[in-house]
Design goal:
Blueprint: H1 25-28, E1 31-35, E2 42-47, E3 50-53, H2 54-57, H3 69-72, H4 76-92, E4 99-101, E5 106-108, E6 116-119, H5 123-133, E7 150-152, E8 158-160, E9 165-166, E10 169-172, E11 181-184, E12 188-189, E13 192-198, H6 211-214, E14 215-222, E15 225-226, H7 227-233, E16 247-249, E17 254-255, E18 263-265, E19 283-285, E20 288-293, E21 296-299, H8 310-318, E22 329-331, H9 346-349, E23 364-372, E24 378-380, E25 384-389
Parallel strand pairs: 6-22, 8-16, 9-25
Antiparallel strand pairs: 1-2, 1-5, 2-3, 3-4, 6-7, 10-11, 12-15, 13-14, 13-22, 14-16, 14-17, 18-19, 20-21, 20-23, 23-24, 23-25
Length: 392
C-alpha cells in the first residue's frame, strides 16, 4: 500500500524486540514480560523508557513467571496492592535500583492466551461494511442492535507486537463466478482494535457489573484480515482462514486501574438491550487510536464511540454458560467513527478496494493510542505493529 515511505515508524519490527513504550508511562505503569541477554523471561513494568524488574523490586513469586498469568489470576485486591507498591517505589526512587533500559531488553508476548473472541461492536464500522458488502439493503443485520455480534478466533496465532505477519493463503472467489482460486490473499487488511485480558476465571455467566472483577487490563490489537478469503468462506459460518493466521497485540498490558480517568458515559442504545445486557454503569473508555502505514497516518479512530461496551461483550460471551480462563483475550472489533478519517480498516478506507489498495508485502502497520491520565494530560498505551512479509 503506497501511503508513505517505509522506515518512518519508530521501533524494531523484528519479533519480540523492544518496542517504543508509552509516553508518561509513570502514570500508566503497564506490565509486560521481558528478558535480557542470557536471562530468563520475567515480569516487568514500564517506567518511562526503563523496565522495572518486578522479580527483584517486589519479590513475589508471580513476578518471576514467564507470563503475567499467575499474577493476573490473583484478582483485583492483589492487582491493587501491587500497583500501590509499584507507585510508591517510583515515587520514592526505590525503583531506580531495579531498572533496565528499554533498549536493552527483549519483549515477549505478555500473557499466555487461553481463548480469543473478537466482536463487531462499532456502529459506524458495521454500517460501512453493510453498505460495502450489501449495497441497497439495510446496512445492519436484524440482530446487530440486540446483541454484541462476535466470533471465536484462534489463540495460537496471537503474537506480540513486532512479529512479522506472513501473507496468508487460501481459497478466493473465482472470476465471474468461475471455480475458486487458491493462492495468497490479494486483499490483506488491518483492523484497529482494543483487547481486554481476563485475569480471574469464571465458571459461567458474568454480569455486566462484574467486568472489573474479572478483567485485568487492556492491550491494543490488530485483527489482521484477508478480505478475499473471508468473503468466499464466510457463507454461511463466518470468519475462518481469513482471520486465523495472525492477531497482533501490544507487548504492554495497561491495567484497568490506569484507565479510571478514561471512563466516559457509553453511547445510547436503541432499542434497549435485553436484561442480561443492561449495563448500569454504562461506561466506555476515552481512548484515541491512531493507525499508520509506513509512517503515514491513515486513521484516528475513537474508541469512546463504540456501541457495545466491553462489559456487555463479556456478559454476552458468557451468558450461555461459557467459562472464562486466565489469559482469555476479548477483542473489541474494529474501532471506527462516523467520519472517513476515523475508519479503522482498509475495507472502509478503500471502500472495498474501489478507492485504493490493500496492504502490500513490506507494508508496516502501527497502531497507537492515548488515554486521559489521572493527574491531567494523556498517556500512551503500548503500541502494536507488524510488517507484512510475502506468502511462503
Amino acid at each position: 500500500m503506497d501511503v508513505g515511505a517505509p522506515g518512518d515508524v519508530t521501533g524494531d519490527a523484528r519479533a519480540g524486540h523492544a518496542q517504543p513504550g508509552p509516553r508518561q508511562a509513570g502514570a500508566a505503569l503497564p506490565y509486560g514480560v521481558f528478558s535480557t541477554a542470557g536471562g530468563a523471561r520475567r515480569v516487568g513494568a514500564l517506567v518511562d523508557d526503563r523496565v522495572a524488574d518486578l522479580s527483584t523490586l517486589l519479590g513475589d513469586a508471580a513476578w518471576s513467571a514467564p507470563s503475567l498469568n499467575p499474577f493476573m489470576a490473583l484478582g483485583p485486591s492483589a492487582w491493587d496492592d501491587a500497583r500501590a507498591r509499584l507507585m510508591e517505589a517510583v515515587s520514592n526512587g526505590a525503583v531506580d535500583d531495579h531498572v533496565v533500559a528499554l533498549d536493552d531488553v527483549t519483549l515477549h508476548l505478555p500473557f499466555e492466551v487461553a481463548d480469543y473472541a473478537d466482536f463487531y461492536s462499532s456502529l459506524s464500522h458495521a454500517e460501512n461494511c453493510g453498505r460495502i458488502l450489501r449495497p441497497g439493503s439495510d446496512p445492519l443485520t436484524p440482530n446487530w442492535r440486540h446483541m454484541p455480534v462476535g466470533y471465536h478466533g484462534r489463540a495460537g496465532t496471537v503474537v506480540v507486537s513486532g512479529t512479522p505477519v506472513r501473507r496468508p493463503r487460501g481459497q478466493r472467489r473465482g472470476v465471474d463466478g468461475g471455480a475458486p482460486v487458491f493462492g495468497a490473499s490479494q486483499m490483506l487488511d488491518f483492523e484497529a482494535e482494543v483487547g481486554f485480558v481476563v485475569g480471574v476465571p469464571s465458571g459461567g455467566p458474568v454480569a455486566t457489573g462484574a467486568f472489573a472483577a474479572h478483567v485485568f487490563g487492556a492491550v491494543l490489537l490488530n485483527d489482521w484480515s484477508a478480505r478475499d478469503l473471508q468473503a468466499w468462506e464466510g457463507q454461511p459460518l463466518g470468519p475462518f482462514l481469513g482471520k486465523s493466521f495472525a492477531t497482533s497485540v501490544s507487548a504492554w498490558v495497561t491495567p484497568l486501574a490506569a484507565l479510571l480517568a478514561a471512563r466516559r458515559p457509553a453511547p445510547p442504545q436503541d432499542p434497549p438491550p435485553l436484561p442480561y445486557l443492561v449495563d448500569d454503569d454504562g461506561w466506555a473508555f476515552d481512548l484515541e487510536l491512531e493507525v499508520s502505514v509506513n509512517g503515514a497516518v491513515v486513521s484516528r479512530p475513537p474508541f469512546s464511540a463504540m456501541y457495545w461496551t466491553p462489559a456487555q461483550q463479556l456478559a454476552h460471551l458468557t451468558v450461555n454458560g461459557a467459562s472464562l480462563r486466565t489469559g482469555d483475550l476479548i477483542g473489541s472489533g474494529t474501532v471506527s467513527g462516523p467520519s472517513r478519517d476515523e475508519w479503522g480498516s482498509l475495507l472502509e478506507l478503500t471502500w472495498g478496494g474501489r478507492d485504493g489498495a490493500f496492504l502490500a508485502d513490506g507494508d508496516r502497520v502501527s497502531i497507537s493510542a492515548t488515554a486521559p491520565a489521572a493527574g491531567g494530560g494523556r498517556f500512551s498505551l503500548g503500541p502494536v505493529d507488524g510488517t507484512v512479509i510475502a506468502s511462503g
